[in-house]
Amino acid sequence: xxxxxxxxxxxxxxxxxxxxxxxxxxxxxxxxxxxxxxxxxxxxxxxxxxxxxxxxxxxxxxxxxxxxxxxxxxxxxxxxxxxxxxxxxxxxxxxxxxxxxxxxxxxxxxxxxxxxxxxxxxxxxxxxxxxxxxxxxxxxxxxxxxxxxxxxxxxxxxxxxxxxxxxxxxxxxxxxxxxxxxxxxxxxxxxxxxxxxxxxxxxxxxxxxxxxxxxxxxxxxxxxxxxxxxxxxxxxxxxxxxxxxxxxxxxxxxxxxxxxxxxxxxxxxxxxxxxxxxxxxxxxxxxxxxxxx
Length: 293
Description:
Elements: E1 3-9, H1 25-35, E2 41-47, H2 52-62, E3 70-74, H3 83-89, H4 92-97, H5 102-110, E4 121-125, H6 157-167, E5 171-177, E6 199-201, E7 205-209, H7 210-231, H8 237-247, E8 252-257, H9 282-288
Parallel strand pairs: 1-2, 1-4, 2-3, 5-8
Antiparallel strand pairs: 4-7, 5-6, 5-7
C-alpha cells in the first residue's frame, strides 16, 4: 500500500495581492518536519521559486530528509486554475490585509490533476498542522528553541495507518461543530439540497483512495465555478467542502470535533471543566493514534 501526502509552503504572501499569514516560515518548516515522521508516505510540497532554495537547504541539507521522500515542486499561484475568474471578484486591498490565500485554498484540489495516480492513497495535510496552538504540551517533544512548538509525537506511521483504516472506502473530511461553538458561515443556502451549517469542514487534512479523488475534485470545481460566477464572491475552500458534506454525504467519512483549543492553548480565564464535555481538535489526532483517555 503506497501513500502520498500533498502540501504546500508559501510563507511570504502577507501584505500581497494573494494574502497570507505573517511570520510563518519557521512554523511551516518545523511542522512539516514533524509530519515527515510518517515515513511510510512520500511527500510533495508545492512552493514558489523564491522559497525553493531555502526549503531544500532546510530539509535536505540541515535535516537529511531524502529527496525521494520529499519532493518540492515550484508552482506560480498566479497560474492557478480559475485565476481569471478569481481576479474578476477579488477585493485586492482587502486581500492584502487578510491572512488567507484563496489561490492556495482552491489549489489544494486543483493540484490533484497533476498526479499520475500511481499511489494507492492520497491525502492533503496543511504543512503547518503540527503546532502548539492545537496540540497539548504532553505531545510536544522538540528541544530546539523553535522546534519545541511544532515537534509532536502524534504523527507516526501508526497514525497514518489508522487514518487510512478509518477513511474506509470513503473520502475523509474533518468537521468542526458550528452551532453551539460557532466558527464560520457558509455559502448561500440556495446551493444546499437541505440547508445545514451545523458542521464546518476544515481544509487542513482530507483525502482517501485514488479512486475517489477525480469525483471529489470535479464536484469541488463545479461548485467553485458556479458559486463564484453567480454569487460574485470568493468562498473559502472550507465553505465549499462544508456544502459537499451535506449534498454528497454518501462520499465522505466525517470525523467531528467541537473546539480548536486544548487546555494548554485556550484562553487563560477558562476553567479546566470547559474542556470536559467538548471535543478538542487534538482528540481526533489521538483517535488516529488509538489513544483514549
